[in-house]
Amino acid sequence: MSPGREATVEVDGHRLVLTNLDKVLYPKVGFTKSDLLAYYSAIAPTMLGHLAERPLSVQRFPDGVEGQRFFGKNLPKGAPDWLQSVVVKSGVRGSHEEVRYPIVDCAAALLYFANLAAIELHVPMWRSDPARPAPSPDEIVFDLDPGAPAALPECCALALLLREELPELADRPLEPLPKVSGKKGLQLYCAVEPMEAEAARTLAHTVAEGFASRHPDLAVANMRKDLRGGVVLIDWSQNVPAKTTVAPYSLRPEPEPSVSAPVSWEEVASATTPAGAAALRFGPAQVLARVEAHGDLFAPLTARR
After folding, report:
1. CB proximity list for 126: less than 8 A, separation 6 or greater
2. Among 3, 14, 253, 271, fewest CB within 10 Å belongs to which?
3. Is 140:125 a contact under the CB 8 Å cutoff?
4. Which range marks the domain in which residue 262 is found?
5. How far is 289 from 305, CA to CA, in rounded Å?
6. pLDDT digits 0-9 by tens, 102-146
7. SS3 83
8. Residue 245: which of 189, 193, 304 has the closest Cα?
9. What does DSSP say about strands 176-180 and 186-191: parallel, antiparallel, or unpaired?
10. Which DSSP string corresponds to 231-254?
């Protein structure tokens, strides 16, 4: 895709007008909107399996990562009629509001949002399913968020221990798969059979609380900020239906482009030191090369569908 102010392309049989292609979105390195579109176009075959059927929320940065950000969950006004969507009741207690979320199920839809400078993409742990009117999570996520001076090495060390102890903490087999957040933390995803939302929340909470009680010097499961210093928060709350987690392969709005990317357990084991953890920060080109070499390390999450 050649840089320029505007281009018209056809993707999946849909005509897209891509605008302001020379707009710089990451000023520190000169990463442009054209670069953003090129990345999401290239990663689409791998990423779409983790977006399809899941209500999408986005963070848009029309003036780049140093400018104002806009959080969006509603289907944008003027969206093309081919863009899929789903109506979801608000997760706010007592609210009768309904939100029409977009669904990204094809490369054209992904590029439509990239053209809106939607750098960061979020989805919940459940898929829209007409046979299940209530959200039924099919994934559990543990978001490992370090409190300074703890950092990614502490998250990796904790993840290895949590993986080892999961059979004792959970009431069912869980096989965690790790991905770096693209910022300072690590996230562990576990595939589950679709289950009631309250059961998923309880399972995640039980595991987090159980681990934190065993290792109070390493982890907390309480969201209070004053408890996080020097330890890792096991954030279980993203398993609540109204909450979302940054999608696999999404870019993050850091000073330089970074990607929330799956990693292997061997890589996690090698990243328990600052030097090792530095190798787990990936830019778009690195992620595309990793997928070319190793495929989708999160493929087990989509293979069961």
Report:
1. 54, 135, 136, 137, 138, 139, 194, 197, 241
2. 3
3. yes
4. 132-305
5. 26
6. 999 999 999 999 999 999 999 999 999 888 888 999 999 999 999
7. coil
8. 189
9. antiparallel
10. SEEEE-GGGSTT--EEPTT-EE-S
- Which single residue is written with the structure tokens 């707009």? 23
Q: Are residues 219 and 136 in the same domain?
A: yes
In a domain? residue 82: no
- Cβ atoms of 117 and 60 closer than 8 Å: yes
Contact 117, 36 (CB under 8 A): yes
Residues 140, 119 share a domain: no
Same-domain check for residues 200 and 162: yes
Classify residue 78: in a domain, yes or no: no
Grouping H, G, I as helix, E, B as strand and the rest as coil, residue 159 is helix
Distances (CA, A) of 81 to 38, 41, 76, 117, 132: 24, 21, 11, 20, 25
Note the pLDDT tens digit of each residue in 186-244.
999 999 999 999 999 999 999 999 999 999 999 999 988 888 899 999 999 999 999 99
User: Does residue 117 share a domain with residue 139?
Assistant: no
Residue with the two structure tokens 């990463």: 31
Query: Does residue 92 sit within a domain?
Result: no
Three-class SS of residue 4?
A: coil
